[in-house]
Amino acid sequence: MHIKRATSSDFAQLIIVWEHSVRATHDFLPEKMIATLRPLILKNYLPNIDVYMSVDEHNNGFVE
Known about the structure:
Elements: E1 2-5, H1 11-25, H2 31-45, E2 52-56, E3 61-62
Antiparallel strand pairs: 1-2, 2-3
């Protein structure tokens, strides 16, 4: 396992992790808010910040 800097090709996987995390920890957020935030994070935030992710080369790549 190693840490790598995420690229735009990783964002689809990262938004899945984000959504699972939000649903597990922010049960007070209505579905409409999650749906509103998802495209903002995917299109506006992730491309404009440094994001690092854990990669497991023995388990076909990405680690959730």
